[in-house]
Design goal:
Elements: H1 11-21, E1 29-32, H2 42-57, E2 61-66, H3 76-88, E3 98-99, H4 104-116, E4 120-123, H5 127-133, H6 151-162, E5 172-175, E6 190-194, E7 208-210, H7 212-222, E8 227-231, H8 238-247, E9 256-260, E10 263-265, H9 272-280, H10 295-301, H11 305-315, E11 322-324, H12 326-338, E12 343-344, E13 346-347, E14 350-355, E15 361-367, E16 378-384, E17 386-390, E18 411-413, E19 418-426, E20 432-439, E21 457-458, E22 460-462, E23 467-474, E24 494-502, E25 514-517, E26 521-525, E27 536-541, H13 546-557, H14 561-569, H15 578-590, H16 595-602, H17 605-617, H18 624-641, H19 651-662, H20 668-681, H21 685-692, H22 700-713, H23 715-722, H24 729-739, H25 746-757
Parallel strand pairs: 1-2, 2-3, 8-9, 10-11, 12-25, 14-20, 18-21, 23-27
Antiparallel strand pairs: 4-5, 5-6, 6-7, 13-24, 14-17, 15-16, 17-22, 18-19, 19-20, 23-24, 25-26, 26-27
The structure holds adenosine-5'-triphosphate (ATP) and magnesium ion.
């Protein structure tokens, strides 16, 4: 399989080719450098594909290095998960797994060398003062008085730091670069800090740990890396990367850093920290929960490595961050499985059908693949007078375009016969419990001479031979396109069907099998819970993009969001003009916006003017990051449909709205509601909040009784939670938020619910 099938080269491969051509390097050496503080996610898969893919393409090699400089968050279980993920994706790292901690002695020596050159000093300023002295984007910083220390004193102090003679935070080692540098990162960055903590590999050997910026470039150099590829948020760190290597006189073949755009996917959160919150909070069943964007999650759900690789390949490598539509990933897996996996029949909500005129039983030969799939194979499908069909494949009073079984309309049983309705049997409550039907002997599939017209073929299973199975229907974990947290969890992201019925051929003792369940989707035998007694199948993905439909409906109602999405998916990035680039730089370096938001604002003059006015005219001025989010999402959406003059709200009001979220007067959810009101009326946000009583409820004594009420109403779920089903936490939080119309402070709710359910 080709790992870089696209014909046109991406910018990274272009750089690599030039460097080989000019003999800058004899061999391409890359590395994948995760911090082992969580399970890898699909963003990491992207980075893995790039680093290993480039090494493969140019006959070089790629190292796997654990960037383990932070003793308090790292663990071997994460190291194992990272190794698993890379192997599963089909890549091989060069030699042993490497660890930055193995280089601690060398990195220490380099630090001593810098001190001897007068290029590093021990600073004993406390944290707060240090922050003040750093200055701001508009103001130069000032050097700490400790920078005057002599080389001897610095050497002595640094050694004592290493020997554990000081407490955490008492001193740090800093590079002596430039306190007036425009790039704030260059204002005497920290190189080492004291941490009396046990390291999962180095044990207690060290109580000083190098900072990322110091350790990373040196580790690259020590390993002989040529191209150090990382994501855009490290753009400003590149200057330090170069300073460290240049100052130490480390020459070619020394590595150089190159940045690409981080992968973001909608309806998904993607940072190990956020994923850890979901795992620890019990919102999911673990790091390998099939709803998570972790590699372990995709693997368990039934995604194939090929589908992930083709997804990563298809989205390309960009220099500007963008949001990829999760539908594209779903397309990749569908596309991969469509012609690969056998099609079988499973009934999720069984309704009994008795075929009055059928006697005995027979075994039908049913092919696994439709005619247009170049694959052969078939199985035996038992048939008799008692079968089960899907409950919603029968309707007593159907609407006009209903094509399945009705009192007046016959239907084909896939691979078998056409049946016609005779009678419906109901229980005392009026619920349908059985259908009586007749079959048409001359309508056998493939040999049909009956002349009966039907509009569809439905799945079914034979009653005696069918096997009871559990089916887990997974859907997107978040219902919001840009989820913020637990309150955006999709309550229907997992539905467990305990009593589905499946045809006998599907029951298998082979692990790692996937099927298409006719008309339902693609399914995978759960690698952990599947047993002979209780087979369990996970839904990998549906047959079509059902969200797209929902989205279109939403889009009709409100905005042209999906249009915006289309433009973004498209991997192609139009270069920025000089002015736009300047704005972009200002946004990312001075104001701290992430590159995605900065990109949206910088490329849109109206929007950036709006932002600018909002930031400068609002009093008190809101946090630039929060404001940018508000402008690039809410305001941008309005401006897509209307001209600036037609807006009823103004920049100052948007500033005030942002400030209210910042001060936790309202939640960000309520802010959206307030914004909608501002769109309609142009009223001031403070006024709207007051009139409608939308102030966020953070007082635990107000929230507690609501939780009690929710618990009282749902005793079953309380019992289930206490019996260990901690997944229900999300349910309770959701109910409480709902009961308060979204006004309760989600953080407080989460904590309280957790306490009460203990
Ligand atoms: P997270 O924020 O999820 O913890 P990280 O960047 O801190 O991610 P690392 O373990 O430091 O995670 O990352 C290892 C490598 O994977 C880095 O080179 C990083 O740039 C890359 N990487 C991480 N997330 C993404 C992403 N979303 N898209 C592309 N590459 C990523
Ligand atoms: Mg990180």
């Amino acid at each position: 399989m080709s790992k870089s099938s696209s014909d046109s080269k991406d910018f990274l491969r272009t750089i690599v080719e030039q460097d080989l051509k000019s003999s800058k390097y004899a061999e391409v050496v890359t590395r994948f450098p995760p911090e082992p503080n969580g399970f890898p996610h699909i963003g990491h898969a992207k980075s893995i594909c790039i680093n290993f893919g480039i090494a493969d393409d140019y006959a070089g090699h790629c190292n796997l290095r654990m960037d383990d400089t932070n003793p308090t968050t790292e663990d071997t279980k994460y190291v194992e998960a990272l190794k698993d993920a890379i192997e599963w994706l089909g890549f091989e790292w060069e030699g042993n797994v490497r660890f930055t901690s193995d280089y601690f002695p060398k990195i220490y020596d380099y630090a001593v060398e810098l001190i001897k050159m007068g290029k590093a000093y021990v600073d004993s300023t406390d944290e707060e003062e240090m922050r003040e002295l750093r200055g701001t984007v508009k103001e130069a910083g000032r050097r700490s008085k400790y920078a005057e220390r002599s080389i001897e004193e610095n050497l002595d102090l640094f050694e004592k730091m290493k020997n554990g003679e000081f407490k955490d935070g008492e001193h740090v080692l800093r590079a002596k670069i430039d306190m007036t540098a425009a790039n704030m990162k260059m204002r005497d960055p920290l190189l080492y800090r004291i941490r009396h903590a046990h390291h999962f590999r180095a044990g207690d050997a060290w109580c000083i740990y190098p900072m990322y910026d110091f350790a990373h470039g040196l580790s690259d150099y020590i390993e002989g890396v040529s191209h150090s590829i990382c994501t855009l948020e490290f753009e400003n760190n590149r200057d330090i990367y170069n300073w460290v290597l240049d100052t130490l006189g480390l020459t070619l073949p020394r590595p150089y850093q190159h940045e690409f755009a981080r992968l973001g996917i909608n309806y998904t959160v993607m940072s190990k920290r956020k994923l850890l919150e979901l795992v620890d909070g019990g919102q999911v069943s673990g790091w390998d929960d099939p709803r998570l964007p972790t590699i372990a999650g995709y693997k368990r759900r039934g995604y194939t490595p090929e589908s992930i690789l083709s997804f990563c390949d298809g989205i390309g490598i960009a220099k500007a961050n963008s949001m990829v539509d999760v539908a594209q990933l779903e397309f990749s897996i569908r596309d991969d499985l469509n012609t690969k996996v056998p099609r079988v029949m499973c009934v999720l909500d069984p309704l009994k059908v008795t075929i009055g005129n059928y006697e005995g039983s027979e075994e039908l030969d049913a092919s696994y693949y439709p005619d247009d799939v170049p694959k052969e194979g078939s199985r035996i499908l038992p048939f008799s007078k008692e079968i089960y069909i899907e409950r919603d494949d029968f309707m007593e009073n159907p609407p006009k375009d209903y094509f399945r079984l009705t009192p007046k309309q016959a239907v084909r049983l896939k691979h078998a016969y056409i049946i016609t309705f005779k009678e419906v049997i109901k229980d005392a409550d009026g619920k349908i419990v059985e259908i009586k039907a007749v079959y048409h002997p001359e309508s056998k599939s493939g040999l049909d001479t009956s002349g009966i017209k039907v509009k569809s073929a439905i799945q079914w299973v034979e009653a005696k031979t069918a096997k009871r199975v559990e089916v887990r229907l997974y859907d997107r974990l978040f219902k919001e396109e840009a989820p913020e947290g637990v309150e955006d969890i999709n309550p229907d992201s997992l539905k467990v069907i305990k009593n589905a019925l499946i045809e006998p051929a599907v029951i298998t003792d082979k692990p790692d099998v996937r099927f298409q369940f006719e008309r339902q989707g693609y399914f995978y035998a759960d690698p952990i819970d599947y047993t002979d007694e209780k087979p369990v199948f996970n839904k990998i993905v549906g047959l079509k993009d059902s969200w797209n439909k929902k989205e279109k409906k939403k889009a009709k109602e409100s905005t042209s969001k999906s249009q915006e999405k289309k433009v973004q998916i498209d991997g192609e990035v139009v270069p920025m003009s000089e002015v736009q680039q300047k704005l972009y730089d200002k946004y990312t370096t001075e104001l701290g916006l992430n590159s995605e938001v900065a990109n949206t604002l910088a490329r849109d003059e109206t929007l950036s003017n709006f932002y600018y006015e909002s930031l400068n005219l609002s009093e008190p001025s809101p946090n630039p990051v929060g404001l940018a989010n508000m402008v690039s999402n809410e305001v941008a959406r309005e401006l897509k449909e209307k001209s600036l003059d037609a807006l009823k709200f103004n920049p100052i009001q948007i500033g005030a709205l942002t400030k209210m979220v910042e001060n936790e007067i309202i939640s960000s959810k309520i802010a959206k509601q307030v914004f909608e009101e501002m769109v309609k009326t142009g009223e001031n946000p403070t006024q709207i909040v007051e009139d409608k009583g939308l102030v966020q409820i953070s007082d635990p004594s107000k929230i507690a009784p609501i939780i009690d009420e929710v618990m009282e109403k749902n005793p079953d779920n309380v019992a289930k939670f206490r019996a260990g089903n901690t997944k229900l936490l999300g349910f309770f939080v959701g109910q409480v938020l709902k009961a308060t119309g979204g006004k309760a402070n989600p953080k407080v709710v989460n904590t309280l619910v957790n306490e009460k359910l203990k």
